[in-house]
Amino acid sequence: MVELIYKIILEFxxxxxxxxxxxxxxxxxxxxxxxxxxxxxxxxxxxxxxxxPVVKAALFGIPLPLCSCGVIPVATSLRSHGANRSSTTSxxxxxxxxxxxxxxxxxxxxxxxxxxxxPLAALVTGLIGGSLVEVFDQDGKEETSLPAKCDVxxxxxxxxxxxxxxxxxxxxxxxxxxxxxPLIVGLIVAAVIALALPDDFFxxxxxxxxxPxxxxxxxxxxxxxxxxxxVPVAAALMAKGISAGAALVFLMTGPATNAATxxxxxxxxxxxxxxxxxxxVAGCALAFGFILDYIFAYKGVPSTRQTxxxxxxxxxxxxxxxxVMVLGYALFKSYSGKLTEKLPETIMPRTTLTIKGMTxxxxxxxxxxxxxxxxxxxxxxxxxxxxxxxxxxxxxxLKCLHDSVEKIGYSIVK
Length: 414
What we know:
By secondary structure, the protein is mainly alpha-helical. It has helices at 2-36, 39-45, 51-61, 71-80, 85-94, 100-110, 112-136, 163-196, 201-206, 210-220, 230-239, 244-256, 259-269, 271-298, 313-336, 361-372, 398-406, and strands spanning 351-356, 377-383, 388-393, 411-413.
């Protein structure tokens, strides 16, 4: 047993070392993207009809490091601030499948072909889904989903810091908090698969073609899988006989869908859009899975992660140590239970809300923003661990607070 645990730790460290340099760089890139591509900037570009807003939504979504749970409040906020149904769907489809961090991790573990093909598949999926919604489920008369933005009183505590500070803070502190737990689980699962299963296990069990793809789809659709944390699992599955196409199906359906996501899309965008969303993910995953298998099998492109230029071993080890420090601090912060932003000591919160459904710091940011857009709200602070929001201001409407939170996909415990 001790020897087995030791081997699992060695495999865990080996995979961590391969992805660490790229993931750290991805974290930093994601931090700067969070500063220069804000939800407000996206909102300004996703209104209007036709295909162009759909294209822009897909392009905006690809580099953003948002999971399938974190993208929902962003998308519903976009919707409530003027984005049409088709561009919102395009954003929902392209965003969770990939991000700048997961693209770099994909390159490190699966090679350059996979790293290029994965965001391309996400882009096309967003374009197809958004176009289908534009044709079959166009917006009718637009409704005002959220109260108008306040001109004064709405604050953002981070604005007092410079862009560089905010980028580094998001990339190395906030974002790692959102993926640290699934990433650790993914690395452990990958290590166990690598040691416990013989080579070509899945090829003998499921064969080739559509059956392993369907198996990966049935695994990926109902559960939550992080776009970054799923990569080491996919790499381990490929090493045990799963084809590149089947691995891609898992990487597309897992991050893009789960039961909570589909339920929320059904509620926010309607039944028809939810069905188009699910059908687009499933259909595109299978189509791109077959295309990728064709590229690897018939064009002679090797599909192992050893096919690209490898960094020196000492770089991997140093990066792994740094990544462990970043993830360790993120894990500590996620359990510390501290508010994302403290209310001033001289101001007591007038209203405390208990909110269900928040899972990450993107959720916190969107709840905070929704509350602070209610007229009369001066400041809102959100405690992710406790599931509570603290609101201060003068003359705000309690119903406005409840409606603002519920219309971005969360629920108020009354």
